[in-house]
Amino acid sequence: MNPRKELLEHIPNLRAFALSLTGNADQADDLVQEALMKAWTSLDRFQPGTNMRAWLFTILRNAFYSEFRKKRREVEDADGAMAAKLSSHPEQLGHMDFDDFRRVLDELPSDQREALILIGASGFSYEEAAEICGCAVGTVKSRVNRARTRLADLLSVESTSEYGPDSIAGPIVSGTPPTKGRSVA
């Protein structure tokens, strides 16, 4: 029998199988259409004398599971709320702010710069920084506070809103360590 004719004969069975998989007539029709398109374009690879019905059902089943895996990774976002959360602020200004920050960081006294880098950039606790510096915890806290105050003066920063919410400036403003791979000094 002609493979093209045989392919068409199996459409009702494919539709029934697709309906059992999807539970929705429209989705089943789409799935059958996709399976038939794949089979039609691959008809030259079908081996005459083998089971056409099994071949078509395999194509349909594989298409169903491929679509299922794809949809599992997708998130429906009808109102655009998820997409709005994925936006990011431009970082051009952050790079310029960071360059300014690095320049004025070098103007700090070395003890203040060291304390600020240990706490703000390296993520050490005040106790750990005090041990590294060989001084009291209160001394480290004082140095960090004076360093932050002096940096704000040198950069003419009056509030945290003057630094953009980008990945470079964020750690400077919040006092949290930057992500791995970024260093203040």
From TrEMBL:
InterPro entries, A to Z: RNA_pol_sigma-70-like, RNA_pol_sigma-70_dom, RNA_pol_sigma70_ECF_CS, RNA_pol_sigma70_r2, RNA_pol_sigma70_r4_t2, RNA_pol_sigma_r2, RNA_pol_sigma_r3/r4-like, WH-like_DNA-bd_sf
Organism: Amorphus orientalis
Residue stretches making up the RNA polymerase sigma-70 region domain: 9-73
Listed name of the protein: RNA polymerase sigma factor
Domain of life assignment: Bacteria
PROSITE patterns membership: SIGMA70_ECF (PS01063)
UniProt-listed NCBIfam families: PRK12547.1 (NF009199), sigma70-ECF (TIGR02937)
Gene3D superfamilies: 1.10.1740.10, Winged helix-like DNA-binding domain superfamily/Winged helix DNA-binding domain (1.10.10.10)
PANTHER family cross-referenced by the UniProt entry: RNA POLYMERASE ECF-TYPE SIGMA FACTO, RNA POLYMERASE SIGMA FACTOR RFAY-RELATED
